[in-house]
Amino acid sequence: MGRPAVGAAHRGMAVRRTLIAYLFLFPALLLLGVFTFYPVVFGTALSLFEYDVISPPRYVGVSQFRALWTDRYFWIALENSLKYLLVVPVLQFCSIVLALWVRRPLRGIGWFRAAYYVPVVTSIVVVGLLWRWLLDESGLVNYALLKLGVIHAPVHWLTNPAFALYAVMFVTLWKGLGYYMVIYLAGLEAIPATYEEAAAIDGAGPTTRLLRVTIPLLRPSILLAGTLSAISALRVFEEMYVMTGGGPVYSTYTMFYYMFDQAFGSLHLGYAAALGVVLAAVTVVLAVANFRLLRQGGLTYY
Amino acid sequence: MRRSLAAVALALLLSVGTAAGNPRAQLEFWTISLQPFFTGYVQGVIARYQAAHPDVAVRWIDVQPQAVDQKLLASIAGGVSPDVVNLNTEGTLRLAEARALVDMDAAVPADVRARYFPNIWASLRYSGRTYGIPWYVVPNVLAYNRTLFERAGLDPQHPPATTDAFIRDATVIKQKTGVYGFMPNVDGVRMLAVFQEEGLPILSPDRRHAVFGGPAYVALLAAYVDLYKHDMFPDDTLQHGYLGATERYAGARLGMLTTGPQFLLRVKNDSPDVYKDTLVAPAPHGRGNVLDLPTMALVVPLASRHRTEAAQFALFVTDDDNQLAFDHQVVIFPSTRKAAADPFFARGGATPEDRARVIAARELGVARDLTVVVPHSDELFRVFKDAIENAFYGRMTPQQALAWAAHEWDGRL
Lengths: 302, 413
Fold this sequence. Notes:
The complex is a heterodimer of chains A (302) and B (413).
Chain A: H1 2-46, E1 49-50, E2 58-59, H2 63-69, H3 72-84, H4 87-102, H5 109-121, H6 124-134, H7 140-148, H8 164-190, H9 193-201, H10 206-217, H11 219-234, H12 238-243, H13 255-265, H14 269-294
Helix pairs in contact in A: 1-14, 3-13, 4-8, 4-11, 5-8, 8-11, 9-10, 11-14, 13-14
Chain B: H1 2-21, E1 25-32, H2 39-52, E2 56-63, H3 68-77, E3 84-88, H4 89-97, H5 104-107, H6 110-113, H7 118-122, E4 125-126, E5 129-130, E6 133-137, E7 141-145, H8 146-151, H9 163-177, H10 190-197, H11 215-229, H12 237-250, E8 256-259, H13 263-270, H14 272-276, E9 278-282, E10 291-292, E11 295-299, H15 307-317, H16 320-329, E12 333-334, H17 337-340, H18 352-363, E13 367-368, H19 377-392, H20 398-412
Parallel strand pairs in B: 1-2, 1-3, 10-13
Antiparallel strand pairs in B: 3-11, 4-5, 6-11, 6-12, 7-8, 7-9
Helix pairs in contact in B: 12-13, 19-20
């Protein structure tokens, strides 16, 4: 008689534990559900409708996806968004170098770390306006380059279609540097000193230790930072909105900008949702590729 | 105990008082960039309206020009639409096309409509119905920097009267002083107004075809492209438009500014030295002898919960007295006939604004809103902007650019 009672108590405890676990998970799941899963499902459904905020949505099937195929501005935006991915390797490389540099136990290095983090916490609107002035034809950048003799005439950084996208990319890089530096600093701190010490005892020099020990062990951080950075690059919008307005000649017109334009400029919310679905698909493909390339290495396997 | 009872009684009394004072309608009123210069004026209008209509409360929100369209759509989509919104003609027509606005031909009685200039009322018309109440209009004037004129060897007493002379003087200023002479209004769809000012229509009489692919249009665009290639106007003209021109003028980095005279107030505040050096003249006329007359309107979104009260408030803001009071604060012009007949508009004065007011009042005779009304305006305007920028940046010849844009328009008209 006693045995089943013990079993029931055990089951009761297991159920209670499971309930408590879900109770702890609930706030995060609720937020994810409301702000991530619901918008994804709603946006995907909306891409099958024509909707202009004012009239009720009208089901049009996949016709909006077909329309993308012949839409000149979709291809311009997609091309610019993919070009923007060039910022990712440069940003990651610079962030790793910076993290290695500020990790050294130097006097006042804390101030340096803080200084590099300031752009991260600065509003993108402020950053955009600041760089718009700096990159102006008669701005500080042109002034300095002219004084140094690097250029002989002012460069139209933001008004020349050949440079504008890269000038905006530079601002993204400048603003993101501190954020990824912190990720890499955390990654570097997590690597036990014993690995490098063992390599040093085996006769490895600083460069060999960096390339053969530190960087491979940093791969999980590179995977995380690379994926986050790639997703951010595909979703870039504010920099363009503040600095170039998508121009000149649509040279900084990205997928997110086009989505915004279609949704709030033209009231084609269904079409904007279709653009969003395509952008999400590209992002997922990229994230998967990132994981495939970088998942092995580090202290844990992914 | 006694104190607690007194507190409860006081709370009850206050809640009763609040309930009794609750307005029947809470209107949200959006304006464009009227703070901080006109804060007192707008608050005064609202206070007078609320005093006359105790059952209506008005909440004022001032929005930046770049943000108003997006904020409005987001509010409508979110179910929290404002009730009265200040929009320009282009914004009004875009929302009218989306069937988002109250039809003012139906909402406003004929005798009240008759108070407004018929041509200004008609500028907010889409598919035969009018979707906004005109508020104020702003004909352009020419502001120019006397010192730069003199340094360039030009006579400040003889400013350019025609577009050709305007371009010629601007070229001389650039060549002689190194400072840009002008920032022409050629960015994006504003080139459509430039065509019309030169007497070139945009659409065929049946409105089914774009006619801007012809040789006269190509020659005009090519002339501006040539000026651009020879660095006769700033590189950022196509990006920053008239706001950029005002900033540049206020910084003494631009010889002439064709703009609404209300921008003189910004020059006065931002750069008193340049303001002192500023002279005003009529805006140069093109061959069409017509000037663009941008109209500011008050619209009522269909999503407003208080459409009737909103339309009444919009009529109050745009009535003769309120418009006239506003016109005393800045160089703008009323949309109502009685207010426009006030002697104030013919009275001169010593300041550039006073002179601008008299000049602009005379311009009203040849001015009309040149906003092109077409279906699918967002798509057509995007194509046109693309074509114009391609021509300026040398990616297409002016002929290719206009022919391509006209072809794209024809497919959608």
